[in-house]
Every structure is written in structure tokens, then in C-alpha cells.
Predict the 3D structure of the following.
Amino acid sequence: MNMNTVLICGGEINDEFSLVCLKQIKPDCIIGVDKGLEFCYRNHVIPDWILGDFDSISKEVIDWYREQQEIPIRQYKPEKDDTDTRLGMELALKLGSDKIFLLGATGGRLDHYMGNLQSLLITARKEKEGWILDEQNAITVRKAGKICIHKEEQFGKYVSFFSMGDEVTGLSLTGFQYPLDDYTLKNSDGIAVSNQLSDDCGIIEFETGYLMMVLSKDRTKC
């Protein structure tokens, strides 16, 4: 049985969208990451684990959660080698997670956003699924292999692809408006941006590298 874990991170977070995600995902485990606890606090969400350096969270919130002695809390010094999100990803994998969803991982500081995107490599290297979700995007990074997207289940209508290393080789897109065949996608390419499905099922195959896939929709009210 697959284990789903949600990390509530400290970036910009849409409460309505995130609560819907939690309802749909039905996570086996919720990890509150630093300022993400403020979302948990105002929406009465009880995480299974809490971690962070707690340098950006209100004292009222962290003190309340410290009083809930049944919740394990891991506190780190601000001068650490990894971001709070990466530490949360490592914990989720250690707990046996097969799919990890990050909420509140976009917006705000660009360096934090980029760090969160790179953290998706952690799950890809372990051949697990990692997703960053917000009201406009669903982002994942995958190791070489085959991915299928079904139009009826797709998040939004746009699909973009980026290399998370120097290049992705043998990239083929079938069932897309702009297909590719055995293409070498370099990290400087823009050829795979803003594609769309032309068939009911889109197939992505590639031979080497790590591929970032971004599913997007036009901004609408959640």
C-alpha cells in the first residue's frame, strides 16, 4: 500500500486550495515545516511531525504546538546545510513515503522557491513521486523512464518540460500538440515550454537525465 505524505511549507499558501488538496490526497502523514505551521494553526490541522529552525514562525504558534506533547518536533539551528523543506523531504522518505506533496512551496523569496524545486530531485533519485502544488501549477521531477498523462485527470491544460541537469536524452512526446522524437533537451532549451495534449493520453519517454514536468492552468479563483 502506497504511503502519501504532505509537507506544509512556509511559502505563499492559498488556504482554500490547500484544504481541498488535503481532502483529495488523504495523506497518511502530514509534516509541518517551520512557518507552514501557521497554516496548520489557523485551519486546525494537526501534523504528525514538525520540523524547522523556527526562525520565521510566530512564538504563539510554535508554543501552542510544543504543548501538544504527542507531536514529535525536530528543531534545527538556523546555520544548517539543508533547507527546512529538504529536511522534511528526507524525513518523509525515511518514514517510507511513496508520494510526497509540497504545499506552500512557491511564491515569496526566489531563492527558497528554487531550493524547493531542486528538492524534487531527492524523490526522483529514490524513484519516488514528489510534487509541488499550488493553485496554478503541479510540478514534478522524474528519473529516466516513461510517464503517462491522461487528459481527464490532467492539472490544467499546459504541460512544459525542463532538464534538471545538463541534458535529458532520448526525449519523445507522443499525443501532444507539439511532439518530439528522440530529442536531446538541454537546460538552455525553450522548445518544450507550454505544450498541450492532442490525444486523450500523452506519453513522455526519455533515456537519461532528470526531467522536470510542469502542469499549469490559467489563473482562476480556486
Summary: The mean pLDDT is 92. Helices lie at 15-25, 37-42, 59-67, 84-94, 110-125.
